[in-house]
Amino acid sequence: MFTVNRLRNQQMAKVTVRYWAAAKAAAGVAEEPYEADTLAGALDAVRERHPGELTRVLQRCSFLVDGDPVGTRAHETVRLADGGTVEVLPPFAGG
After folding, report:
1. Which residues are registered as beta bridge partners of 30?
2. How far apart are CA 57 and CA 60, in angstroms?
3. How far apart are CA 28 and CA 50, in angstroms?
4. What pLDDT does 3 receive?
5. Are 88 and 63 in contact (CB under 8 A)?
6. Which terminus of the chain is more solvent-facing, meaning fewer CB atoms within 10 Å of its CB: N or C?
7. Taking residues 14-27, what's their average pLDDT?
8. Three-state SS for 31?
9. What is the pTM of this model?
10. Which key words tag this protein in UniProt (predicted)?
11. Per-residue pLDDT at 1
12. Could you tell me whether strands 31-36 and 13-19 are parallel, antiparallel, or unpaired per DSSP bridges?
């Protein structure tokens, strides 16, 4: 019971999601705030707020969480820290 009550009292992390290149164009903003515990939760909220083109762009993106590449880790396992940043990086052409 203690664990359930403890989880109910936890607040989600407040993070800034920053969009780059095609993601920025699809979102129509450079960055915006979200509340989520994991990268998966943040991306679900992004998709809900921006259905359509941004959802398609996200399928091709890589992500940095507080400057660290997410790589192939499952997004459900990537915890977010309060005050953190999620960078949304579409594939870039050139060098």
Report:
1. none
2. 6
3. 9
4. 35
5. yes
6. C
7. 97
8. strand
9. 0.86
10. Nucleotide-binding
11. 35
12. antiparallel
C-alpha–C-alpha distance, residues 46 and 80, integer Å: 15
Q: Which two tokens stand for residue 73?
A: 């880790």
Report pLDDT for 50.
Answer: 96
- Which pLDDT band, with edges at 50, 70 and 90, does 17 fall under? very high
Residues 17/84, Cβ–Cβ less than 8 Å = no
How far apart (Å, rounded) are the C-alpha atoms in residues 74 and 37? Answer: 14
Q: Kindly indicate the confidence band of residue 85, based on its pLDDT and cuts at 50, 70 and 90.
A: very high
Q: How far apart are CA 80 and CA 67, in angstroms?
A: 12
- In contact, 51 and 27? CB cutoff 8 Å: no
List C-alpha distances in Å: 45 to 2, 8, 32, 65, 92: 29, 20, 11, 16, 24
Nearest CA among 42, 35, 86 for reference residue 64: 86
Q: Give me the phi and psi of 46, to 5 degrees please.
A: -60, -45
